[in-house]
Predict the 3D structure of the following.
Amino acid sequence: MRVVQEVNSNSKLNEFVIKFANVNGTGSASANHLFAKSIFRMGVPVSPRNIFPSNIQGLPTWYEVRVSEKGYLGRKEIVDIMVAMNPQSFQSDVDSVEPGGYLLYDSTMPLDLSKYREDIHWIGIPITEICIREFSNPKQRQLFKNIVYVGALVALLKMNFSIVKNLVKDQFSGKEKLITPNVFALELGYQWVKENVSVPFSIRVEQSNKLDNKILVDGNTAAGLGCVYGGATVAAWYPITPSTSLVESYDKYCERLRIDPGSGKKKFAIVQAEDELAALGMVIGASWNGARAFTATSGPGVSLMTEFLGLAYFAEVPVVLFNVQRGGPSTGMPTRTQQSDLLACAYASHGDTKHILLFPANPTECFELAVAAFDIAERFQTPVITLSDLELGMNDWTTDKLEWDDEEQYDRGKVLSKDDLDSLDNWGRYNDVDGDGIGYRTYPGVHPDKGAFLIRGTSHDAFARYSERGDDYVEGMERLQRKFATAAAALPVPVIRSARQQSLYGVIYYGTTDPAMDEALDLLAEKDIELDAMRIRAFPFREAVFAFMEHHTRVFVVEQNRDGQMRTLLINEGDINPAKLTSVCHFDGTPITAQFIADSISLSLEELIPSVQPSKSRVSKKGA
Amino acid sequence: MRVVQEVNSNSKLNEFVIKFANVNGTGSASANHLFAKSIFRMGVPVSPRNIFPSNIQGLPTWYEVRVSEKGYLGRKEIVDIMVAMNPQSFQSDVDSVEPGGYLLYDSTMPLDLSKYREDIHWIGIPITEICIREFSNPKQRQLFKNIVYVGALVALLKMNFSIVKNLVKDQFSGKEKLITPNVFALELGYQWVKENVSVPFSIRVEQSNKLDNKILVDGNTAAGLGCVYGGATVAAWYPITPSTSLVESYDKYCERLRIDPGSGKKKFAIVQAEDELAALGMVIGASWNGARAFTATSGPGVSLMTEFLGLAYFAEVPVVLFNVQRGGPSTGMPTRTQQSDLLACAYASHGDTKHILLFPANPTECFELAVAAFDIAERFQTPVITLSDLELGMNDWTTDKLEWDDEEQYDRGKVLSKDDLDSLDNWGRYNDVDGDGIGYRTYPGVHPDKGAFLIRGTSHDAFARYSERGDDYVEGMERLQRKFATAAAALPVPVIRSARQQSLYGVIYYGTTDPAMDEALDLLAEKDIELDAMRIRAFPFREAVFAFMEHHTRVFVVEQNRDGQMRTLLINEGDINPAKLTSVCHFDGTPITAQFIADSISLSLEELIPSVQPSKSRVSKKGA
Amino acid sequence: MSYIAKSTFHHAKLPVNELGLTERDYEGPLSSLCAGCGHDSISAAIVQACHEISIEPHRIAKLSGIGCSSKTPNYYLQKSHGFNSVHGRMPSIATGANAANKDLVYIGMSGDGDSASIGLGQFCHAVRRKLNMVYIIANNGTYGLTKGQNSAMTDFGSKSKKGDENPFEAIDVANLALQLGATFVARSFSGDKSQFVPLLKAAIAHRGFAVIDCLSPCVTFNNHAGSTKSYDFVRDHNEALNRADFVPMKEEIVTQYAPGSSKEVCLHDGSVLHLHKLADEYDPSDAVEASYYLQKKQREGKVLTGLIYVNTDSPDLHEIINTVDKPLNQLGITDLCPGSKTLQNINESFC
Amino acid sequence: MSYIAKSTFHHAKLPVNELGLTERDYEGPLSSLCAGCGHDSISAAIVQACHEISIEPHRIAKLSGIGCSSKTPNYYLQKSHGFNSVHGRMPSIATGANAANKDLVYIGMSGDGDSASIGLGQFCHAVRRKLNMVYIIANNGTYGLTKGQNSAMTDFGSKSKKGDENPFEAIDVANLALQLGATFVARSFSGDKSQFVPLLKAAIAHRGFAVIDCLSPCVTFNNHAGSTKSYDFVRDHNEALNRADFVPMKEEIVTQYAPGSSKEVCLHDGSVLHLHKLADEYDPSDAVEASYYLQKKQREGKVLTGLIYVNTDSPDLHEIINTVDKPLNQLGITDLCPGSKTLQNINESFC
Ligand SMILES: Cc1ncc(C[n+]2csc(CCOP(=O)(O)OP(=O)(O)O)c2C)c(N)n1
Ligand SMILES: Cc1ncc(C[n+]2csc(CCOP(=O)(O)OP(=O)(O)O)c2C)c(N)n1
Ligand code: SF4
Ligand code: SF4
Ligand SMILES: [Mg+2]
Ligand SMILES: [Mg+2]
């Protein structure tokens, strides 16, 4: 059965969005991934997004794939092709297709098309029927439905079939008996289209060469790998979406790369803690004892870690913590994305505390900043929190290859060896001998007579002795400020993209807003709105960040939370006049889009240029 | 033995500071309190401060009593009279006396006075010798040393002896057998002075009448009493200095006032939880179930409560939490005072969260704001955190009498009864029917068929149903913002003290900075520096707070933390230009003094008036 | 989960209880758990038990933490208020709720991860306080919702997703609860309604902390034991792709066996559970002996099911702290506020 | 605490151990606990035990939470690194520390509040992971540092400061540890050096989780039992003023009694402890029997002391998770970093 209406004429070559509507637990995610990765292998930039419920089986789940020869990989809200496999969400899936777009559906059960919109192309494929006919195992009948529609798409989009088939072979290598039925299922879909669909399909994927130095990987995998390369030996964690796969990645690569060949024993220790408090406690214990250690969690975990973060700040123990953010507050939207834990992390814990934050914007940076986090944490003897999010952590991104310089050495910071201690007379753990706020550490067991001290969360003097004296306390707290200032100047520099001509306007953003921002700046430039853009990669901020704000009369701060948390950090830490900073906040749990940014900024500029007004009142917000 | 040198001529009548240096656990605190309260009973304003170590026995402890007919009750750093009973701290205690001041010491063991400074008056009393002679029980010999020096002071300061003796009788009523030896010990000291000290003593306490409507009580006692009057029936807590006595006060008054006469059973439930997480969980459970419930803790406890605070914010459950602040971060200075948990409380928990804060400045306000906290929490269905501190919670203050209006009714907020539910058709827990952001609650068990719902920390729609839809989420989050705005307009108004003439300068402060600020403003006025002053009592801020900043070209924000946390809240929530707000931060763990404030502000004004510059760089900091 | 909406139509012939209510009155909206999940059987048993004992649904409060198991309060007793709280912290919520209103029946639902990993401290302390509640641990020996990590109740040697054997021993919460003063301790199997429903009814009737460790197979992630079955297509598929995104529909596992007898139950993944039902003669009144017997059976590799211990004489938290008979949340300002006169006296004491 | 500074002069005649070190080499700075506090006796026992077994002080790491007991690491082994962490969370710090360096000896010091109240979860999980450490609970049945509230290990019926009897039952951590897989479980009394020191030495030598529940009287706040003594001036004084600011010097409570015998120890407040020392014939090798015996004795009102259970065959956490022999904190970049070549291969797998 086939229903194809009037054909849209402007063909979309390597530039479209396809969305799969499935039921959770039916194996669709792997089939959809197969589709996305095939396009990647054809040399075309691609960004797949898995939109899944907080559930294991039976609820609606979607998979969006943006294909963009131009390299625009942020989320785009329109749908050119919908593969509508879920009866539960069918009507709204139909509604979300762009006029002139395509809708694929399973036509095994006849559908009364007269009840549905006429401005899109309907392609019915009897998927269930095909599977029942061709497979006998009921699980295979179910699972291969997904593969059949992938095969059909290969034909419709005129993709390179052999690339797809090879990919199947790669993926199932080691489980060879799965290859034949999978390839067979692909063929079923492919052939059905070849035989039954004669009408031209205006969307196509063509081999390209845009991905020379690129890989397709998710941020958590890259960050986990970064921990391996960064020399982490102790990982303590408690499972929580969307951070779980970060530790799983570390585990997987350690099992592959960190087994002592002679004994078969492990050069790493992973402890699944009983909760996040314990996980961070283990990291603190291990770091104190001279190992590189990390944990990964999400918002609820960070909240539980708050007390221990204060201990690490005040006792000055390195901590590497990955917060893969999801929708808050509380349990919130566990399977949605947000950038809403900045304040909770920057000022975590009671008392005057501040923590170093890193903001990776793609998997390559997840790798690099994971490696860097260990150096930074040890150099400044303090917690470093890397703020990624679900969008980055759990989705595959087209990103630069990971690189490693074999000359690289770990920066373990100021640590005294036995010999150092022998040659020292008046060592005090918290003595600021270098004037940079950083004292010299010793590891337990280093020396029989020297260098031992009792580390503590209570107030102490420069010699780590308990003290309730106000001057000892103030000296320590001011030194911590000094240390923070030293850190600011040493953290990853912001990334600047200058407007083609000088501009009074700037935009500041960070993390996963990156791909949408690239596109948004181009959209704005088309309207002759030129902005200088700065992507922040670390807190505390470098001078360059303040200079950027200084040099522009108005700066938009684009972020994915309700309260404009980065803006708060900027005005608070930089004493910036809030009137200058306009929040552009998107916080409905979906990734921000270029269109949203461009619309918000241009609207705001239209309104504000005549009389520049303070505008904490957000220019726009968003419910999808 | 007696050593008195040249007498200082200008007599200090009802205006001085006396400091007692003791050893922890020797019973000095109760003797010193006896002294302070006697002065109070003489009608003279007094502010005693207990400066104690985080230890039970054997370490130095001090007790400062400021006596001020003028009513200046903030801490003053000079010492007019030192009672130096602790050999461990003797030298530094001697050093801290003002030239011309007095030092009392135990002269049982002869002291070579030639080794010590000559510019103070030395009064040696053979205290140990007297006690050994007069008492046989070794514990009495030890304990009554303290009472002996109180007796001596009564004589030296020419205090009303019968007031002191009556106070002993009041305090030991019920333990009559303790009265006689205590009074006897007082007499011993008193008589010894009368017989041995002939040189005039320039400091005196005279009966006055400044305390008509005043009481002498600590903030925790008053707050605990406020919880009784506010109708709290469930208290869940975990012991931590300096908050413990708040719950103990609640307990004590409940045991006295809330026992059902018939059955002897309790109209309250106090659960000592296993930790602070559990304590807050219990409060949330009880509040959800329609009881007024509270917990009290300090910084480390708040950090542990972070996850649950987010739940209460997002699920919209009333919470009354008292944070009696101490020196942070981490375990920090458990027996010192600070105002450094503002950020940790205002934005507690991951995701976009904000909490209501109240700032009592004296025990009377501890009582009033405790009562108010329950109304506010129930009215806005959200956590209310009352930020007191050790200085207020654990020290006795001369403060206004507590008042209660018997017409008062509790404001339980929007709660639907069975009848309400019967008459409603389309109730949704989170429906904003009134446009103020506040929905209508129901208590469990209220109705056989209607009003039940599953409360949760996961995202939900207006009908409390689980939802992962972006628009449901955004609707809820924007409503929470609306609710916060509604709250801002209904919270306790700031207290304003206007300058005698119009001033371009303002000062904002809160909590226990209050008494020092009164004095500081007078000190500044003496130098012809006039400032308008505003004491903030709640967060989110009322419009008046922003108007105040609007109307002054420079506003000093005086607080007792390192990072200027109130200033952060002001600029962030009010979009105030930071250049306008100068931080005056005192954070060494001792209470802020008038002198510190006055010096800081005048220094800053001298420097800044020519060219008004932003100054996040603090004007001064302080190590005592 | 099934896609067919439940009928809300009350069939005339549905049996009614003493209150005139049918089981429908005790149900909830459609479950979104995996087809065949043991937790759904627990929900069904709760519906049946509450119906049979004729308790008014609105007199029940349902509480839970976070996890697949903790989602279930959404799927039963829709006329009851419920609190789906945060991970591992339901016991404290329940304590506060109970303190506020002693007159409701509190049914807590938790998972093995929720109770024995993150929530172990709160669980133990609620037991120790003898909170009057029913505490069900839907024990699937895994973290269902986060896709199959081991919990502190995962059996020693059982295989994880990755194929490793769990090297840690499982915490026996039943024995733990015994040590800590629970006054009703039982174990059952979600698929054995004939045992589980009566236990539930008894637990609800019990005053004090009643814990039921209910074995409840996770059909999707549980154990992944070295399958005795030959080729498992699904496992192969999921393993190859390193993601368990294919969860085929499964049947609920049911069993029935006589008191005093043992039974082996084969789970979907091929692992085997050795259940041993307490004999009718078993005397559950001595905590020390019960704990001893439990541990001895466990050594034999047998999982005891049935009512392990019960003590009906012990006071509950309210009796311990001696609160008034009227629920505290029903006391008004006249009960609670001592008034201005008393305050004046108190002021005197501060002078 | 005493005001007289300790002499640091090494007396020529002080006995030296195999390393040539005297006890002085194992001491710490002056204690600031109350005179007579049982915790100081524990510190002294640690000094003695470590000296006697001739362990190099810097090979020991001392860990603690928060409380009077948790302050003690400051008062012994000043050549050892120590970590005075946060309340109730020392077990996780110890777990991480041990993971990083398996070669040090970890001695954890905690209180009954620190371990059994706020820290119960972490304690249980550290036990379950068979962490190789000595875990001492300085058990005074009260919160010393916060001035005398009940902990979860306070005895049922013991009187609080206010005079109320504790209505909750105490958690028996020794029995709990047994359930959870501790491989060395002992109980002792701080004042009984002849028993406690050998137990400590054995615990340090043991590989695995060795817990010692050490009864350690708080001379200031403990129990306040209905005193059998007549007039207590101090208590009267403190009660009258409702603040316990008078803490007179007290003597350390010491006792000695033979294996197999019972002894009543009278505490400063007049309460009595019934100790029963395990007989030499007692067989500590069976966990189930040990737990049974412990509980039966407890029913008789007796507190068993001695080595209750030991198992020397069980693997510790490192063996369980199979780490290399070299401590992880000693691995360098060449051990840890797979290098650029490997990364290129990994990149391939993402293409
Ligand atoms: C503080 C926190 N940490 C982690 C999580 C993630 N999480 C959700 S459910 C769960 C485990 C649930 O296991 P269990 O209680 O056994 O329930 P099951 O799903 O097996 O029924 C975890 C770790 C969370 N929601 N909150
Ligand atoms: C998170 C937190 N909560 C509460 C406290 C206050 N606190 C300090 S020590 C202590 C109890 C100590 O009791 P225990 O462990 O038995 O030690 P002891 O003093 O009796 O030796 C408490 C509640 C704290 N420091 N941190
Ligand atoms: S994952 Fe397991 S526990 Fe969760 S719903 Fe599915 S079968 Fe049940
Ligand atoms: S209060 Fe008790 S536990 Fe603390 S030091 Fe004093 S005697 Fe020891
Ligand atoms: Mg489970
Ligand atoms: Mg204790």
